[in-house]
UniProtKB/TrEMBL annotation:
PROSITE patterns: HELICASE_ATP_BIND_1, HELICASE_CTER. Keywords: ATP-binding, DNA damage, DNA repair, DNA-binding, Helicase, Hydrolase, Nucleotide-binding. GO terms for biological process: DNA repair. The keyword Cytoplasm does not apply. Coiled coil: none annotated. The lineage of its organism: Bacteria, Candidatus Dojkabacteria. Gene3D superfamilies: Nucleic acid-binding proteins (2.40.50.140), P-loop containing nucleotide triphosphate hydrolases (3.40.50.300). SMART domains: DEXDc, HELICc. Signal peptide: none annotated. Residues 282-437 form the Helicase ATP-binding domain. This is ATP-dependent DNA helicase RecG. InterPro entries: DEAD/DEAH_box_helicase_dom, Helicase_ATP-bd, Helicase_C-like, NA-bd_OB-fold, P-loop_NTPase, RecG/Mfd, RecG_wedge. Residues 471-626 form the Helicase C-terminal domain. One of its GO terms (molecular function) is ATP binding.
Amino acid sequence: MNLSDSVTSLKYVSSSYSEKLDRLGIKSVKNLLTYFPRSYTDSSHIDDIYGALIKFKDGVEEFTIKAKVDEIKSIRLRGGNRTLQNGQVSDKSGSILIQFFNQPYLTKALKYKQEYLFKGKIKQKGNQFTFYPTVFEEVKEEEESIHLGRISPEYALTAGVTKKWFRNRVKQALDLLKDNEIDLKELDNIDSLVKTNTIVEYLNELHFPENEKTLAKAHDALALLEMADVHLKVKNRLSKEIKKYEKLDIAKASKDLKTILKQIPFELTEDQNQVVSNLVEQLQDKKLINCLIQGDVGSGKTIVSFILAYIFAKQGIQAAILVPTTVLARQHFDNAKKLFSFDKDIIVDMASTENKKAEKSNLLIGTTAIIHRNEHLIDNLGLIVVDEQHRFGVTQREFLLNNLKQKKTPHYIDMTATPIPRSITEVFFSDIDVFSIKSKPKDRKRIKSYLVPSNKRKDGYRWIKDKILSEGNQAFWVCPLIDNSEAITSKSVKEIYTDLKKNLPDLKIEYLHGKMKKQEKEAIMKQFSENKFHILVSTTVIEVGVDVPNATIMVIENGERFGLAQLHQIRGRVGRGSDQSYCFVFTDDLPEAGSEKEASDRLHYFVSEHNGLKIAEFDLQSRGPGEVYGTKQSGIPNLKLAKLTDLGLIKKSKSLAEKAYNSGITEISLFN
């Protein structure tokens, strides 16, 4: 049997079972064997009947015993089709009555004088003790048990697939693969953890462990291989890009940097200066820029991109700054026009899907429509800056570069305000430069954040109204929904807009959401920026990049509906000026139990912490990468064993991947 064989090649996997397995994503033998247990049940301690009765008297209820069947018969109960199966089992220490309900087939399934493992509870009525097995398994001399008397796997299954049937199929596949190689033999000679066992042996231990120690060893070995495979994929993708690269000469980068630094009307922070200097040094050394710039909202990443774009545009080499929304593109465009007003040689164009008549220019600012519409591009695009890269996904870079009709690979900068934990950068950005802008402009104050329960809502309204009217500032009011939903109990933009108009009649209020036309959104944002109204009720369309320094209050409805990294970004829409800013997270009362308690803990952590990286680490630990980043959007794989929070594993797997890559191994097929 080979890993690539269809799961239908296994015994007892009919077409109907194949359809059920397909719901679990299992089509091949490999899919089956890498569908790992979600937990384990330990029934390895086996009591004899006498010992079980002694323990029962001491308060223990559930036992696993090994005994022979002396008798089993079925009795029909009065009033209906209910049946009772009575019997007796025995071992060398004694005997005990057993009883089942509505399982008449057991009179044939349980064989006389055959030994079985039984797991269940003992109950006492008067002087009578009765054993009620919930599961049993026949003991065969030449075969190890699968379901009882050992550590047994528990899987997340679908309707119509029992755990006993599924375990049997996994065991069958492992037995048939025992004498086959899983094309990883080369790795056995690379790492001591891997070389002690074959991959099949590790798979067998992970599904049917002998003990907790061998289970842990198998898990660690296969998790190491899984993470190494992720590193290999990243390395292969980057190596392909490097092979396509032809150098693009930026001869006067340092001189142009001095020019723009003299002209811009503010002083860069220490972090901004460091990042700009590093990138210009790479240009001077004729090195390809391939980097990620991360920094909290308001830390000044955009000006760094403008400075680099200026250096390229000044030398007649086109630069493109891509953002996720047209609202943000318009804002960047307006800011760039002001910033570059001292140099008329720099041409700035706003290019988007609607703006088809934009002339070709040295500096383009827009959405990814710039790349889709090649008429905007000249043949020497030298720099691509992708702002808020987490919105595009990791495949966006490859698409952008492959869609260009030029031989030279442009320099590439990703920017994000989404704090990325160190473990994530170690894996997915391991072969590119990662720069962090931690400091903010000197006049910025820490945003004061508060969690507001539902019984304090009216007090919050009054405080916000008084603050706006007395100081002339403005407020964002963010909701998770546009309209009310029967399926989701959350505040909507239209509901809150109506509520605020009623409760705050002295204030001017408008609303904004992603389904509105581009012209409407831009008009409303322009009015808000010009302080034409007090409160903007919105969805998270304002999450990315919107800059209104006069807005000092952020209200977030149903904070439990957002991830912490997203809350941190939303909070960053205020605090853009020198005035003190505030963030209020309105939430329904959360019970202190279960998932609701976890949500409450996360929100309490959020309002107490302002370090974006710490918030990201906490979010990753508590929710996992799938929920934090959205695996489809981010390109982060659904890891089965490895954890992106395990830095030790990441470093070890990176070393293993390097050795594997140098040995000519491009992927670990077990995880593909």
